Amino acid sequence: MAEAGPGERSARRIFVIAAAVLIGAIVAVNLTFIAGGGQRPFPLWYSLLAGAAAVLTLLPAVVVRWLPDRAVRVCGLVAVLLYLSVLLAFPVAASGHGVGRIPWILTASSAAVVMALVAQGRTLAWVTVAAGAAAGIVYRPLFGGFDMDGVVNDLHALLTGAVICVVGDRILSVARGLDRAATETAAAAARASAERGRLAARARASALVHDEILATLNVAATDLPIPHDRVAEQARRAAAGVTRLVDADADERPTLRAALWAEAAQHGAAFREAGRTGSEMPAEVQEPIVAAVRQALGNSVRHAGPDAARTVALVVSDSEIHVEVGDDGVGFDVSAIPHDRLGIRQSIVARMARVPGGSGEIFSTPGRGTRVRLVVQRPAVGGDLRADGQRALRAGLGVIAVMFVIVQVFSAVAAVAAAPSSVFVQAVILAAVVWAAETLRRSPTLVPSRGRVAVVVATVVGAVAVGLAFVPFTYGATWFATAAAFVLVAVALRRRPRIALLGAAVVVTAIVVAGFVAQAPSGQVLQMTVRPIAIVILAAALLGVLGRMQADIAALHAEAVASIEAESWSRAARDELADRVADLARTVVPVLQRLADGPPPTAADRRRFAAQEGELRDSLRAGLLVREPLTAAAAQARARGVDVVLLDDSDVGAADAIVDAVAVWMAARVGEARFRAVGRMLPRSRETWATVAIDERFAEFGPADAPAASVHDGVMSFQGE
Length: 721
Description:
elongated, alpha+beta, single chain, 5-stranded mixed sheet
């Protein structure tokens, strides 16, 4: 047996409980018949065999919550085999015991059909339905009961089994589909989460480089009279940050609320919260938010003014996470932010843009303070899975509709054959029941309107009332009561269970009243009411339990996906951080240690620090421009004391031929600089590909300046992307 997912396991458990309810009703009716003398006793061994079949159907429902799926399926298979044994052993048990007619319980296969679905699925369920129908066809002529009551009973038993097969198979199919979708979603989520983990790790490393290392190298490279002990302390802090970087995930991560409260307290800001703020967020969501808030508060402390009041507000809802950092300080003109201001562009806006569904915005006006708004949209979990299941059930109802009409026509014909004078009444009732079923089937929506459902229910209830008033009170003659129940089952499965239950209650009440008036035996009345009320109640209960089951499955799947995402994110982030730390330990940490433990830097040292700071800045913002010969030209210029800034603003990038041409052109210009050089790769929507500002001069590079091959490749790239 293949390993089942949580959806399929839940569906089987529901089926086991439904089978127990059905077998309980069947046993209760059978005991009533025995007590009233309506059924002759069978040999002890046969009674024990039948009892074992009933017990093996009832018992699993009591302990199904604790049984593994394999054990549930084995119990279902044993129960089905025992039922088939009861059918096969009947001729032996009946021989010589004067059986006047075969008991109706023999062909009541509904509980066994449900257990067959549990054990194997559709194939075994249909075999069980066929076995029950075959028993009626073969045994009734041989052992008695080949009359109107027996034929109608067997036809309705066949229809009940068919309904269970179709509806049950659809439910299992939906459950398996949910499990498959969850598996595929989990695999995709693992891949996406791993990539986000790597991006988050790079962002964390980039933030450390920007917030600590670049600042340290910039201070160390300046000619300003900054005390060396302050520079050394800052260098030690930056080096320690590199060491701690790879182990940052090892510590227990606080909730988002706790992390933001700590940041607010550290920067002297007030903290406010609303919504479901106690819930924990995925690391790839929480950490960028906290880091962006830290950067925003740090900017506020440095620039808003000494008397500015700062606040951090957090609101978490089902649809989004909203964090706002505000102050009432001096403010600034947002449109005037330089492109090389990495504190805002990289550590706040770009960091949040890398979060799925995330965004960062800055609002500020000179003299009126600043607000930084961080928003992450939260995806919906689960969806309307019950509606998906109902759509699958609707497809199966088409098969049942044809079978329903055939069974009711045969039942009406049998009733007319037994009482020819009732032909008109039977024809009217048959037409009413079939019309009601067709009206329901033709509903343009999955959930019929209340008016349509009211007409359908009123029609079948009225047909039952008329029939009970004009036909004899026998099971066969009142076939329409069970037919009405099947229509009400369809109403329940169309997500109108309350109306279906109300209609069933009216039908059962009418049967009981008619039985009392006809002075029918209680066993006969019970037999005529059990099937209608049982199948409608089960359909209504199935709808409710199925919706709850699918919601629970969705929650389980969401938890599994979240766990897989967290594991994938953490593993990928650790690997990426390890690589980044190794690179920083090789290139930057020796410089920081030299600053921390060595003598004050010389002029040559400061030039080296400036060059190192420029190379690190390139790694953050230069993007495609980090290639030869531009890299070598920038390094040489920085060694001469030139401030070189390389910026890649090319959006989604450009063709290699274009970038190579730009790099060659820009390297020549940077080599001519004496004080400052700013090279920028422009967005692909611009006619100009790149610009360079050299000291007091400005130059542009476009298609006319590139070699023919580069222009051709570049145009093809821009047009084809």
